[in-house]
Design a protein that fits this description.
The chain is of the alpha+beta class. A five-stranded antiparallel beta sheet has the order 1-2-3-4-5. The chain has a five-stranded antiparallel beta sheet with strand order 6-7-8-9-10, with no helix packed on it. Strands 12-11-13-14-15 form a five-stranded mixed beta sheet, sandwiched between helices. It has helices at 70-78, 83-96, 99-112, 134-140, 215-221, 233-241, 256-266, 281-288, 290-299, 305-318, and strands at residues 12-14, 20-22, 40-45, 48-53, 59-63, 126-127, 150-154, 159-168, 171-179, 187-190, 208-212, 224-225, 245-248, 269-271, 301-302. The chain folds into three domains: 4-112, no CATH class; 127-192, no CATH class; 197-319, Dna Topoisomerase Vi A Subunit, Chain: A, domain 2 (3-Layer(aba) Sandwich). Helix content is 32%, strand content 22%.
Length: 319
Amino acid sequence: MIDLVQYLPGKRKQTGSGWVSFNGPCCVHNGESADRRKRGGIKINHEGWSYHCFNCRFTASFILGRSLTFKARKLLAWLNVPQEEIERLNLESLRHRSIEGMIDSRKTFDTLTDIRFDDGELPSGELLDNTMPEWQYVSDRCVPSNYPVLRIGYGEADRAGVVIPFTYNNHIVGSTIRFLDDRTPRYINDFQPGYVFGTDLQHDNWQHVIVVEGVFDALSISGLAVMHNAVNDMQARLIRSLGREITVVPDQDLAGMKLVDRAIELGWAVSMPHWEDCKDVNDSVIKHGKLTTLLAIMQARETSRIKIELRKRQIVKGL
């Protein structure tokens, strides 16, 4: 794989989460004025890279073992990577793909070929790092430090907030804005029908997947979020396509009990741990830590409809 860092602009900034920020070369090619505020961000690892521009909203990514996409080729050209280097990278990537990898890719294709989401746009903002005051809020909510988060001032009132990008197959497909004051609305969501947050957080060798309601719940335990107290048919099909043991963990309030009913209908396991002063997964992670929370979820996991209903009644009675 080519050393992409040598082609990045000299004036750049490394964030604590591993992202490199620099003036995005894409803006002038996408109808925007030249970026002067280092709104281009790239994260590189041994498997490839992911690029987001938070000005013109151009995105591109590359994963070793796959062909270079049209957008990835454009970005490399804008970074002045020689054409022969681009072609060499593409050939090396294809050679890297093993027979087992091709089989796995075919399995994924067979299951998910008709599950697609349109590329989305993010609100204009700055990539958050640990020098910014909003970092404390994100850290307190136990968001992993390597997940890209933006900070914004929104609208005429210039409300401060953070933006959590929604991705699917490492492409931006939507987002949620969480405002940091006490006014309503606290959230502005932009997501497509059937979308489930957190599929890109899952690892290939995991046998279980935990389904929760909120984005911060999912981020704090690397789970999936359906972003309301229901699961529609498209979401259910996407979750099943992962081929994992599914456990639903509802918020422990009246609204969350609707998610329990849907989980029973789908034949999924349900977990409602005996948490004191914790309404949801994120509350538990903040107070008790991720490992303790995951252990409590798995210990309280239940597949018996009768036992699930009994625990549900117990929670409702205590509200």
